[in-house]
Specification:
Length: 162
């Protein structure tokens, strides 16, 4: 995970060099940089905090399907309680990445091969048991792929800002 974090650090440095309004713009119909970061918080909340750690409050039930899907398909419009600036979302991500680091630090081969306990309270993912390996793999995969997308889209934004 260290490699993923160091590569994201470089991406964030590039993003900070751009005007903040560009980070809210979509490139070729893809998510904005801010939306991408929100999605990654959602993925960590779902698969690490809720599924692996059993935190029922990690993703409280949404009042509507649109709200429930906000993390999977983030809206570019601000919603109450959702970080809107780069610094706000980075603060949330720092907290979530620290939680992932703690889980990985405490991880044993035995725990990696186990199943999670279902979280009975409503939320995402649904109340069922998942392989710990699958949950952690989902977060690492999301982090890696969305970093690649962010790098591609930042290149387009950098060209537009010069």
């Amino acid at each position: 995970m260290g490699r993923v974090v160091s590569r994201w650090d470089a991406v964030v440095r590039r993003a900070r060099a751009l005007p903040e309004d560009l980070l809210h713009e979509r490139v070729d119909g893809e998510w904005s940089f801010i939306e991408t970061l929100r999605h990654l918080v959602f993925a960590t909340d779902a698969w690490v905090l809720r599924a692996v750690l059993g935190d029922p409050g990690a993703l409280p039930p949404a009042r509507s399907g649109a709200q429930r899907d906000a993390g999977r398909h983030p809206s570019s419009t601000a919603q109450p309680g959702r970080p809107t600036s780069l610094e706000e979302i980075l603060a949330v991500r720092t907290d979530r990445m620290a939680a992932v680091a703690r889980v990985l630090h405490e991880l044993t081969d035995e725990r990696l091969e186990k199943m999670t306990l279902p979280v009975l309270e409503p939320g995402y993912p649904e109340s069922e048991s998942f392989a710990v390996r699958r949950c952690l793999g989902a977060v690492v995969n999301e982090e890696w792929l969305h970093r690649e997308y962010a790098e591609r889209d930042l290149a387009g934004l950098e060209r537009r800002s010069t």
